[in-house]
Amino acid sequence: MRRIIPNALIILIFIFVTGCTSNADTVDTPLYSGKGLYVGVVGEVPKVREDQIHFTSISFDELEDYTKLSSNYDAVIIMKEHLQEADDNKYVKVYTKAGIPFFFIGATKSFMPFVLEDVSYEHSSLTNFNNNMYVTGYFHNGEKFRSWEYGIYNDKVNEPNIKSVYSQMFTTIESIKNGMYK
């Protein structure tokens, strides 16, 4: 009888400890549950949790015809590998006149190198307000602009946290699509 009580106590403590600990490297956030979105992507299409997001790979050449972007996409994402090219002066007009939001994945600097001529992303000292950002977003509706920064939970860049950021972005895109920022 003596052996059963200590063993049962050890098992209960183990269950309590393993059941009550959390993984400090990830956060469980809600999925984007809104309507379907059409998103153009310069670079590799990201992996997301949502099924109602429709990605289309696009090139910088396609971006240059910015008058067609808003009729084809709700937003455009530019992946980290393409940020240096994305800050070319010829794209400033795209970001400021297309009428849809742009999200720069992995941008450690402000959106400003992308929307101001002669400001280089590589040499810019314009950093995000919070250096722990993973995404910088920008939207100009023709009269005024809006920007966003999305951070990674606990600064841990991992798949669950990245997917959480995308869910937040999709909520922002839907808000713009529904006229919240007009």
TrEMBL record:
Keyword vocabulary terms for this entry: Signal
Cleavable signal peptide: 1-24
Record protein name field: Lipoprotein
Organism this protein belongs to: Paenibacillus odorifer
Lineage: Bacteria, Bacillati, Bacillota, Bacilli, Bacillales
